[in-house]
Amino acid sequence: MNKAKDIRDRTHLSGTDVQKLNFVNDSGRYIFRKYYRSGLRSHIFEILTAEDVLKETCGEIMDGIRIFPRARPKKIFRILRNKFESTEAVFREIKKYHLLLKFLGPALIAESDEFIVDYTGTGTSQIVLCGLQEYIEGEILDPWRLFGEGYLRDLFTSYICGDSQLHALVHKAQKNIAMFVKRTRQMITDTGYIPDLAGVGNLILTRDGALKLVDINNIVKIKFDDSILIDDKGYPSCDVSIEVLSILEQEILQKEIHKDDPFYRLFLSPERKKRVKTLEKEFYKNL
User: Fold this and answer.
1) CA–CA separation, 179 vs 271, rounded Å?
2) What is the per-residue pLDDT for 6?
3) Which DSSP string corresponds to 60-119?
4) Contact at 8 Å (CB) between 272 and 280?
5) Per-residue model confidence (pLDDT) at position 146
6) In order along the chain (287 residues), what is the average pLDDT of each group of 10 residues?
7) How far apart, in whole angstroms, are the C-alpha atoms of residue 32 and residue 42?
8) Per the CB 3.0–4.6 Å rule, which of 123, 142, 179, 240 could disulfide with 198?
9) DSSP β-bridge partners for residue 116
10) Looking at the DSSP assignment, which residues form a beta bridge with residue 43?
C-alpha cells in the first residue's frame, strides 16, 4: 500500500486536487485523476483503483513480458463550476438531468448519481453540485467529421474483421442513432428543451454499437422564432445542436431533410446559419 501512496503523490492534479476537498474521504483505495477532457461547466476526474494505477505506473508481468495496462475508470466524477445561490437552484439543475433521463433513457445517456455537497475550502460554506457518472468507453462520434455513409463501417472495422458481423454492428448503431434523433426531437416538442450536442466528444459510440450522450449538464431552452439563444457561456448551443441532429439524419441515417419540415426550415435557413456562425466566432474569440 506504500507503493500506492507514492503513486498518489506523483499523480498530483492540476487545478482542483479532489483528494484535498473537504467532502472527499481519501481512503487510499481510490485515486482521483484529472480526466483528459474537461468541460467549460465542470471539473472532470477519473475515479481509479489504486491497484490499477499501480499496474499502469509500475507494470505487471504477463507471459514473461512487463506490460503497462492503462487504468480504466470505475466512474467519472464531475464537480460543476456553477455558483448556486440556493438549494432550489440546484434542484432546478438536477431536474433538467431527470428530464433528459426521462426522454432519452439510460440506453442513450451516461447515467449519473447527482448529489449536493457543502464545500468549505474557501473559508465559507458553498453549495456545490457533483455527479458520479457512468464511464463510457468508445469512439467519439464527431458530427463535424462525418465522411459519407461508410463512416460507421470505417469506425468499426478496427474492432471486427468479418463482413457479416461488421454489417450487423453498423445496422445496430444506425438503429440506436435513429432512436436518439427520434427521442431528442420528441423532447424538443414536449418540453422546449434540447441537450447540448455541439461539443466534440459529447456523443460516444461504444464497441457494441450503442450511442451515448455523455455531456448531461447543458440542456438549453428553444424558442421557435427568429431570436438565436445563447447559453450561459455565450455559445449558440441550441441552434448548433439542432444542426447536429440534421447531420445525423442526413449523413448517418441517409435521410433527406424535407424543405417543408417546419423544425429544420426555421433553424437551418441560410440566413440564420450565417448569424449563428458569427456568434460562434465571437464565442471562440472570447475564450
Assistant:
1) 30
2) 44
3) EEETTEEE-PPPPPSEEEEEE----SSHHHHHHHHHHHHHHHHHH-TTTB--EEEEEEEE
4) no
5) 76
6) 42 54 83 82 92 94 92 94 88 92 95 92 87 94 80 82 84 95 95 90 93 91 90 89 93 83 88 94 87
7) 15
8) 240
9) 129
10) 79
Cell triple for residue 280?
A: 460562434
- Residue 276 CB coordination number (10 Å): 19
Alpha-carbon gap, residue 107 to 88, rounded angstroms? 29
Q: Is 119 exposed, middle or buried (0-12, 13-18, 19+ CB in 10 A)?
A: middle
Confidence at residue 287, expressed as pLDDT on a 0 to 100 scale: 76
Q: Beta strands of the chain (E only): which ranges?
A: 30-34, 42-49, 60-62, 65-67, 75-80, 112-119, 126-133, 139-140, 193-195, 203-205, 211-213, 219-221
Which residue is it, cell 464537480? 79
Q: What does the block give as the cell for 197?
A: 450536442
| Of 256, 245, 153, 254, nearest in space to 205 by CA | 153
Q: Are 159 and 204 in contact (CB under 8 A)?
A: no
Return the pLDDT at 19. 67
The grid coordinates of residue 19 equal 483528494
In three-state secondary structure terms, 54 is helix
